[in-house]
Amino acid sequence: MKHLSTIGRILYAVPFAVFGLNHFLFVNFYIGSVSSFIPLGPYTIILTGIFLIMASLSILFNKYIKVSTILLAALLLIFILTIHIPGLFDPDPAKWQMALIGLLKDTSLMGGSLLVAGIMQESENKI
After folding, report:
1. Segments forming the whole domain that contains residue 88
2. Which of 20, 95, 108, 114 could form a disulfide with 52 if both were Cys (CB 3.0 to 4.6 A apart)?
3. Is the entire prediction scored with pTM above 0.85?
4. Of 74, 101, 77, 76, which Cα lies nearest the Cα of 87?
5. Residue 24's CB: how many other CB atoms inside 10 A?
């Protein structure tokens, strides 16, 4: 069972590192999806990339997982509220579909983060 949780932890963390790296490599793409009320567009995108990479490293190295997954869930909630939900109101069907896919993806990832945080809380209480 220990091997399954290690594999699961790695499989959960690696995409966040890739998403974070993408925030550095494709800043111009992300600028187009940032709502107009988000301050400092490119800097916010780079800071988000740093947060995603830090969360990934925390999960990969099994350090501060409870805190990092709660913060990751909060970051995903911000994505849902500021990017995906406003995108659902786009009149272009292709953009609306992409917003829905992003909303569902980030909702499931947020649920996974909260699940991991809850498991970590339960394991701390058993000690």
Report:
1. 2-118
2. 20
3. yes
4. 101
5. 13
